[in-house]
Amino acid sequence: MGRIVVTEFVSLDGVMEDPGGSEHSKHGAWTFKFNRGEEGNKFKVDEVNNAEVQLLGRVTYEGFAQAWPQRSGDPFSEKFNSMPKYVVSGTLKKADWNNSTILKGDVVDEVSKLKQKVHGDILVSGSATLVQTLIANDLVDQLNLMVFPVILGSGKRLFGETIPPKTLQLAESKTVGDGVAIMIYKPADKK
């Protein structure tokens, strides 16, 4: 059975919107003001290398599908572009990025089936609405947060008001680069 590993860039006040600037939001590209350092960069590369597939929401998928196919020549880009990708969407008509499949229907059912099918890590990046649904339905096995030392004050938050209380256990933490905290959480009942 696969494990769902959610990985997110977040500000101290929980904003996860537009860390790379592709959405052209008010605070877009806020992560670029910080150096993650060699250890932080290695963490992100290892995350992708350890994953069997990517699971994405439509908005994140469309952004990634526009940016990543033009990148090549390094092991990270090669893996990112070649690995199987599943996009959860009720509106997307086609998914042209290499090895992409659209999951339609009930999100919880479709993702549960995917977990049964995959024998490794299912990496979820960005995808706020999808992540909130996965957390609310206890489908996340690990939550990797890269917390940047900035308060943005506004923007889409990682944890929405509709998520019921969830107890997590801190499995690992470290600080890298310019004070960026990497925190790995697991559901308390899935130790």
Task: For the structure shown, list the relevant keywords.
5 helices; globular; 191 residues; 28% strand; alpha/beta; Dihydrofolate Reductase, subunit A; eight-stranded mixed sheet
CATH fold-level name: Dihydrofolate Reductase, subunit A
Global geometry: globular
| CATH architecture verdict | 3-Layer(aba) Sandwich
Strand segment count: 8
What's the CATH C level?
Alpha Beta
Unreliable residue stretches? none
What's the SSE pattern? EHEHHEEHEHEEE
Oligomer: single chain
> How many domains?
1
- Mean pLDDT, nearest integer? 94
| Helix proportion range | 25-40%
CATH-level-4 superfamily name:
Dihydrofolate Reductase, subunit A
The radius of gyration computed from the alpha-carbon positions, rounded to a whole number of angstroms, is 16 Å
Helix/strand/pairing category? alpha/beta
**Total helical segments:** 5
Layout of secondary structure:
Elements: E1 3-11, H1 37-50, E2 51-57, H2 58-67, H3 75-82, E3 85-88, E4 100-103, H4 107-117, E5 121-125, H5 128-136, E6 142-148, E7 168-176, E8 180-187
Parallel strand pairs: 1-5, 1-6, 2-3, 2-5, 3-4
Antiparallel strand pairs: 6-8, 7-8
